[in-house]
């Protein structure tokens, strides 16, 4: 029997040729069907091969307000498993999860903090966009209105990062202070001493929303503080007015043990920044200086030295990276205000923490859980690893809370309580 040969180029198998023997009596229609089938298969394989050449991204999904670990999940929440969550984010944004391809059979979403067998507080999923590459992918993702709809649907934050070596290897983390490392806006608390908190707060809010020039608004607010006792910062510390944000101590402890340099760069005031540096074990502290009267008793309402505004924050971050010999890709900036955006974009990775909507929209990433320790999820640190990092030296690491399903007795008690 004579045999003709049809040659099909294949990039996927990296073979030069695929030999397809075709008998002389093979029906032409069958031949065309066979060729069509193989061409379609070739296209699918090439599409999978292109995934290897496209920039990969890691999506970190963090629940903002998960139920307590001991409580019963409502049926509608329990039905939204990790698998469903991953599937929905892929389908909503035309992405592809590695786990859906034969090329990556063992690469699935990873739970960073499991609540139940089917549900996690935080998980990561390696993704590829099906239409865009590089910066286009990221920008289209951020601009897609479906992203906020997805986050609202699941009450979660979705953080997208390039899947490269720098994601887990950070060496410099820079924080804003007011409403980031601490829960207060310090100038508002000082203003309370002179019954001008409402006036100062109004200026502060407009500045944080980006409606006012930061330097001008800062001078206007400070002018209202003329005559305040110079010991006001000591008073705020001693009476418990200044409180640290949940998770701030644990985050800084963990980052230091991971070998990171830490800094606070604040548009607030140097006396508080120095105290925060001491309390959290930071390496650097930069902030504004209020002028004190000649007798050292009162604030004059004036500023001295350079104002730490948005440009100054970004410049200080870059300078610190240079001084410490750190690749800018290994730097992180965390803040909540419009004056933190330049710093966030100057860093290798920027996070808007519990920020205003405009800031969240413009920042590289956002986190709204209210717990700074959850930043560690974005670096791929699991709950178990976090427990080890924050344990006291020479102490047995505190175990991460295990997923606990309520017993039937507990379910009965909860039903009775309801």
Automatic annotation (TrEMBL):
Enzyme class: hydrolase
InterPro entries linked to this entry: HAD-like_SerB, HAD-like_sf, HAD_sf, PSP
Keywords: Amino-acid biosynthesis, Hydrolase, Magnesium, Metal-binding, Serine biosynthesis
CDD domains per the UniProt record, alphabetical: HAD_PSP
Pathway participation: Amino-acid biosynthesis; L-serine biosynthesis; L-serine from 3-phospho-D-glycerate: step 3/3
Coiled coil, from the record: none
GO biological process terms, semicolon-separated: L-serine biosynthetic process
Segments of skewed composition (Pro residues): 394-404
Cellular component per GO, a single term: cytoplasm
Catalytic residues (UniProt): 176 (nucleophile), 178 (proton donor)
GO MF, one example: L-phosphoserine phosphatase activity
Cofactor(s) this protein cannot do without: Mg(2+)
Taxonomic superkingdom: Eukaryota
EC number: 3.1.3.3
UniProt protein name: phosphoserine phosphatase
């Amino acid at each position: 029997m004579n045999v003709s040969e049809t040659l099909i180029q294949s990039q996927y198998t990296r073979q030069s040729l695929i030999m397809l023997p075709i008998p002389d009596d093979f029906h032409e229609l069958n031949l065309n069907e066979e060729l069509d089938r193989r061409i379609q298969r070739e296209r699918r394989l090439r599409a999978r091969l292109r995934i290897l050449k496209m920039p990969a991204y890691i999506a970190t999904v963090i629940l903002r307000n998960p139920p307590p670990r001991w409580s019963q999940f409502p049926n509608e929440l329990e039905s939204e498993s990790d698998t469903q969550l991953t599937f929905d984010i892929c389908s909503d944004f035309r992405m592809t999860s590695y786990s859906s391809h034969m090329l990556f059979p063992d690469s699935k979403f990873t739970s960073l903090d499991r609540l139940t067998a089917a549900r996690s507080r935080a998980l990561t999923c390696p993704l590829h966009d099906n239409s865009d590459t590089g910066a286009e992918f990221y920008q289209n993702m951020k601009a897609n209105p479906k992203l906020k709809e997805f986050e609202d649907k699941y009450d979660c934050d979705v953080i997208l990062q390039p899947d490269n070596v720098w994601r887990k290897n950070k060496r410099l983390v820079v924080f804003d202070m007011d409403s980031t490392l601490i829960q207060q806006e310090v100038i508002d608390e000082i203003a309370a001493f002179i019954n001008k908190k409402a006036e100062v707060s109004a200026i502060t809010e407009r500045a944080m929303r980006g409606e006012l020039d930061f330097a001008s608004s800062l001078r206007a607010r400070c002018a209202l503080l003329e005559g305040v006792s110079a010991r006001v910062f000591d008073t705020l510390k001693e009476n418990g007015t200044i409180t640290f944000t949940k998770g701030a101590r644990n985050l800084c402890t963990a980052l230091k043990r991971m070998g990171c340099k830490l800094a606070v760069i604040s548009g607030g005031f140097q006396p508080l920044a120095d105290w925060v540096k001491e309390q959290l074990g930071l390496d650097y502290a930069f902030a504004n200086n209020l002028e004190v009267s000649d007798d050292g008793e009162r604030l004059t309402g004036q500023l001295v030295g350079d104002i730490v505004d948005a440009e100054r924050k970004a410049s200080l971050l870059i300078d610190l990276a240079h001084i410490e010999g750190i690749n800018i890709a290994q730097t992180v900036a965390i803040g909540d205000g419009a004056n933190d955006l330049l710093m966030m974009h100057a860093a290798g990775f920027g996070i808007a923490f519990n920020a205003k909507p405009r800031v969240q929209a413009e920042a590289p990433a956002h986190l709204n859980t209210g717990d700074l320790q959850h930043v560690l999820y974005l670096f791929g640190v699991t709950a178990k690893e976090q427990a080890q990092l924050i344990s006291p030296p020479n102490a047995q690491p505190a175990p991460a809370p295990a997923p606990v399903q309520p017993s039937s007795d507990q379910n009965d008690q909860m039903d009775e309580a309801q």
